[in-house]
Amino acid sequence: MLKRKRVTAEGGNPPRKLTARQITMIVVFSIVLALVILSVVIRLVADPASGLYLAVDGSIGKFFDIPNFFATKYLIILETFAIIVFMWALSLLSSLVIKLVTKATNRAQTIGLLIASIIRYSALIIAIFMVLSAWGVQTPTLLAGAGILGLAISLGAQTLIDDILSGLGLIFEKTFVVGDIVEIDGFRGKVLEIGIRVSKFENLAGDIRTINNADIRASINASDNWTPTLIDIGLGHEINLLEVEEKIKAFLPELVKLVPEIKVEPTYSGVEALNADGVTLRIVIYTHEKDKFSARRKVNRELKIYFDQVGIQVPYTEYLIKNVD
Fold first, then answer.
1. What is the mean pLDDT of each run of 10 residues along the chain (325 residues)?
2. Do residue 299 and residue 233 come from a single domain?
3. Eight-class DSSP state of 197
4. Is residue 73 a part of any domain in this protein?
5. Where are the alpha helices (DSSP H) in the chain?
6. Are 192 and 201 contacting, i.e. CB atoms less than 8 angstroms apart?
7. Does residue 320 lie within any of the structural domains?
8. Within a domain: residue 110?
9. What is the strand order of the sheet 227-235 is part of?
């Protein structure tokens, strides 16, 4: 027996039930919040000499002494807030400046993204140490401990280090830059970002794939040269081949003006195939990799219009239907 999906009166989906974990978290948070509010209210309202005040002060007041905390630590809190705002503004300003300076070329944009990423992480680390120092933490000791910890982590983070070094190699060896069309392990798309650890690529369908830099062992950069695109034209056997070839060759210079995506004057390659339906002629155009599909569609359109004007008939299949009583 099939169960019907219950819906609300408004026609939407039924409300989701809270899980046991969510209920537990809500209860714990509510208790903590109630204790904090109770501690604050009693300290503000009750007489310091009363038993209730002393009981709260000796129990939950030790943990939730919020009024006294803000009264004694407000300068440190303001300093912490100022450090966070300053480092955030510095990181944001640096990113904007780098974006403006590295806007000219794809390679400059790629290096700019890497520098901006390094500045962002550096600002975060510096801000953490400055905040800890403001709260009285001995940062030199912490730095020494962090150095030992970093050495221990580096021994177990070889993949991360490999990703970072591979990313630097991709940038400085000019393997590809942001905006290039590349193919990696069968995935073909445009380079969106080359980061310290990972790189992002987008294919024609809009799917974005993130690949660890160390996993990019072999790649094909289709943006290094103009991409050849093949245009095959099927015509019937009854055509005058020599006459059609002359007309096509005469039209190729005009094709460059009609289709701006074509970067080099197209070439006529000759008869590609002979079959029962007719002959296949081939034209080769050269475009940017990202424009090859749109250029092919435009060329096919212009060729059809031109053939109609000069009287070249593109073959089509005819069906003879007989009505047999």
1. 45 62 82 74 67 62 59 76 86 80 65 75 82 75 65 63 75 76 83 82 84 82 77 87 89 88 86 86 86 88 90 70 64
2. yes
3. S
4. no
5. 20-45, 51-58, 66-101, 106-134, 139-156, 158-172, 241-258, 292-310
6. yes
7. no
8. yes
9. 227-235, 278-287, 264-275
